[in-house]
């Protein structure tokens, strides 16, 4: 327990988030991908405990990645959709129960939700 895949075309954000997880949640294994097409094979090959997906990406957006992930067997309750959009927009496109969470990746308050998720995974990884 503790494998995280983050898919986001914003390399700076990916770097920041993965560094944060590695520093504060060292038992979690983080893999990142800036190319959503390459991420598809990573989803098939590995057991993923948490999938973080950016909603707006070129070539393949987060909605399509979400659909692919669930069809590949990733539980919808292990998927978090990240976006720069406001909460109303996100909840309109991903109503409650569609996935684990939809978060604005630039709002500081939303970081607390990710921390709760990461903390829970860290405790489970510690056994």
UniProtKB/TrEMBL annotation:
<feature type="domain" description="Response regulatory">
    <location>
        <begin position="3"/>
        <end position="127"/>
    </location>
</feature>
<dbReference type="InterPro" id="IPR011006">
    <property type="entry name" value="CheY-like_superfamily"/>
</dbReference>
<feature type="modified residue" description="4-aspartylphosphate">
    <location>
        <position position="54"/>
    </location>
</feature>
<dbReference type="InterPro" id="IPR001789">
    <property type="entry name" value="Sig_transdc_resp-reg_receiver"/>
</dbReference>
<keyword id="KW-0597">Phosphoprotein</keyword>
<protein>
    <submittedName>
        <fullName>Response regulator receiver protein</fullName>
    </submittedName>
</protein>
<dbReference type="InterPro" id="IPR050595">
    <property type="entry name" value="Bact_response_regulator"/>
</dbReference>
<dbReference type="GO" id="GO:0000160">
    <property type="term" value="P:phosphorelay signal transduction system"/>
</dbReference>
<dbReference type="Pfam" id="PF00072">
    <property type="entry name" value="Response_reg"/>
</dbReference>
């Amino acid at each position: 327990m503790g494998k995280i895949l983050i898919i986001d075309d914003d390399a700076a954000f990916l770097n920041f988030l993965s560094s944060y997880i590695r520093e504060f949640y060292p038992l979690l294994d983080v893999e990142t991908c800036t190319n959503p097409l390459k991420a598809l094979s990573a989803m098939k090959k590995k057991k993923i405990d948490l999938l973080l997906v950016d909603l707006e990406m070129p070539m393949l957006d987060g909605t399509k990645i979400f659909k692919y992930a669930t069809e590949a067997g990733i539980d919808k309750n292990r998927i978090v959709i990240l976006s720069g959009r406001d909460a109303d927009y996100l909840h309109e496109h991903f109503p409650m129960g569609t996935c684990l969470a939809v978060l604005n990746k630039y709002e500081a308050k939303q970081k607390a939700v990710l921390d709760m998720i990461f903390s829970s995974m860290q405790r489970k990884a510690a056994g």
